[in-house]
Amino acid sequence: MNLDILLGKTKEHLVPFLETKFLVHKDMARNFLKLQREAEKAGHNLQIISAFRDYDRQLLIWNSKARGERVLLDDHGTPLSINNLSPTELMFAILRWSALPGCSRHHWGTDVDVYDANTQSPDEVKLLPSECEKNGPASDLHEWLDSVISQKASFGFYRPYQSDRGGVSPEKWHLSYAPIAEKYLALFTSTIFRRNLEESDILLKEELLSHAEEIYHRFLTNIDMP
Ligand SMILES: [Zn+2]
């Protein structure tokens, strides 16, 4: 396999999806449509807000957060001021909500962020925990997803960031297609992780390299299993 797939540096594994608005992995598209149809039967309009993102896009997100040009959130989803943070604190604050370029599961095409288009328009979606909680606009959709995922009736989709494991913040809206994503994660060694960092034009690079082993375990492999 071309390992650039893991790093968001190729599109060879992707197909256009949902009126070509998104790119997703060619082997997950059909099962997402099945999940979408089941959701519809239960009264939910399951839609994607974000699918494949490439390396450069993720680099832009990371660097603009490191420069304080893009909102940074604390564990509760409240905006954080970066002025009071040391470089190490800043790095870990970004990692709670944003993957390192080369390390986002969105590079794989297997992972999508979803919302309920019956209750929100795409420009209203913020991807915050409060939207998924009781009385939030996506709470009914997520209650339904809880049920089909726990019954293994979700066509291979599950939530890698279901619970707070001290790494990536819980993200109920982030669904992953396990049959492919599990294989990709198994291929993503700490050697690939370190080399990707070394070759990157990323801000906070020194900090990242000195914590590389911890970050690899805490933010990449430390996920909920299907
Ligand atoms: Zn996501």
Percent strand equals 5-15%
String of helices and strands: HEEHEHEEHEHHEEHHHH
Give the % helix: 40-55%
Q: Which residues sit in consecutive blocks of at least 5 with pLDDT less than 50?
A: none
Quaternary: single chain
Bound molecules: zinc ion
State the secondary-structure class.
Answer: alpha+beta
Number of strands: 8
* End-to-end distance: 23 Å
User: How many whole angstroms does the radius of gyration measure?
Assistant: 17 Å
Structural domain count: 1
Structure overview:
The protein is an alpha+beta fold and 226 residues long. The chain has a single domain (4-220), classed as 2-Layer Sandwich (Muramoyl-pentapeptide Carboxypeptidase, domain 2), CATH 3.30.1380.10. The strands form three sheets. The chain has a four-stranded antiparallel beta sheet. Strands 1-2 form a two-stranded antiparallel ribbon. It has a two-stranded antiparallel ribbon with strand order 4-5. The chain is globular and about 50 Å long. The relative contact order is 0.16. Helix content is 40%, strand content 13%. The structure holds zinc ion (ZN). Zinc ion (ZN) is lined by residues 106, 111, 113, 171, 174.
